[in-house]
Amino acid sequence: MVLNYLFETAKRNLNQKALDPMDFATIFGPFVALCAIAFSLFLEDSNPLALLNAPSIILVLGGTLGATMMAYPLKTFLLLPHYIWQCYRIEIPDPHQYIDLFVHYAELTRRGGMLALENEIIKLENSFLRNALTLVVDGLSAEEVVRVMEIDNDMTSERHQTGITMMSTMAGVSPAMGMVGTLVGLIDALGNLSDPSQLGPSIALAFLTTLYGTLLSNLVFSPMGSKLKQKNNEELLLRELAIEGVLAIQNCENPRIVRQKLESFLRPKFRYGS
Fold first, then answer.
1. Structural domain count of the chain
2. Which of 201, 203, 212, 260 could form a disulfide with 60 if both were Cys (CB 3.0 to 4.6 A apart)?
3. DSSP string covering 98-161
4. pLDDT of residue 274
5. CB 206 within 8 A of CB 182
6. Is residue 171 part of a domain?
7. How many angstroms separate the CA atoms of 223 and 229, rounded?
8. What is the mean pLDDT of the chain?
């Protein structure tokens, strides 16, 4: 039942986000690493296909998922397809779009005051910006606006940390499950010493689970956790930029000053006129 739910959730994510640009680095990174391993085996006159063993893969993946399920509440674990999908999609908006938007709002407020933003706020799809600017138009103080936005930032980061820690858990568990599979294989191999000709292949097959556990940890789960952490940092940076932009709008600052202030969040080569 749980596996069916995970499959349906992953399928729904793919259908709903089909138009989102894909992060091809997440796709080609493991592919490049696996090709390097296969090519090195080919140079050693070994057969890369000899490393394929379905029971070993099932043992490591199943054990890793089971241990992770035990470590988190079920409702949190069922979000795993969502977290995995976040590694494959690009959804961080261009910071220049934020800057241009705030410069435009600064021009509007200097000409028509805060009420000139009411029609513009309705058009915003970004709920974080829409809520923050609504507070400004409603006349809340700068301290209250910042407090509300920072609470939103903290809660967003906390939700992101769940996915990051889940990937870290899986990265730590998968090598251990690989060792478990190796021990099971060795027990089976040593229990059949009556046929010495099968001892070598059986031991080699037993060590495959350790290989799979290590590969999953270092090529899949750990990099995914790092990617989620990077996406979290990028989003928080944009949110900090947005806070400064909202405060600048509230203070009716000059549009040129607004642009210079917000572009200070960017690397020099990405700033206007650089």
1. 1
2. 212
3. HHHHHHHHHHHHHHH-GGGGHHHHHH---HHHHHHHHHHHTT--HHHHHHHHHHHHHHHHHHHH
4. 53
5. yes
6. yes
7. 10
8. 83
Sorted by sequence, the CB contacts under 8 Å of residue 182 that are 6+ apart come out as 206, 207, 209, 210
Between 91 and 69, the more confident residue is 69
In the predicted model, is pLDDT for residue 90 greater than 90? no
Classify residue 122: in a domain, yes or no.
no
CA distances from 134 to 95, 111, 130, 148 (A): 21, 18, 6, 12
How far is 134 from 149, CA to CA, in rounded Å?
Answer: 12
Say whether pLDDT at 64 is over 60: yes
Give the residue ranges of DSSP H helices in 127-271: 127-137, 142-190, 199-206, 208-216, 222-250, 255-263
Report the half-sphere exposure of 129 (CA within 13 A, side-chain side).
Answer: 24
Global pTM value: 0.79
Say whether pLDDT at 10 is over 50: no
Inform me whether the pLDDT recorded for 12 exceeds 60. Answer: no
The answer to whether the beta carbons of residues 238 and 92 sit under 8 Å apart is: yes
What is d(CA 66, CA 42) in angstroms, rounded to the nearest whole number? 35
Assign 78 to helix, strand or coil.
coil
Bridge partner list, 89: 22
Residue 264 has phi, psi (to 5 degrees) of -65, -15
Q: Residue 139: inside a domain, yes or no? A: no
Neighbouring-strand partners of residue 22: 89
By three-state DSSP, how is residue 53 classified? coil
Q: Find the domain containing 182 and state its range.
A: 2-93+149-263
What does the alpha-carbon distance between residue 102 and residue 272 come to, in Å, rounded to a whole number?
A: 14
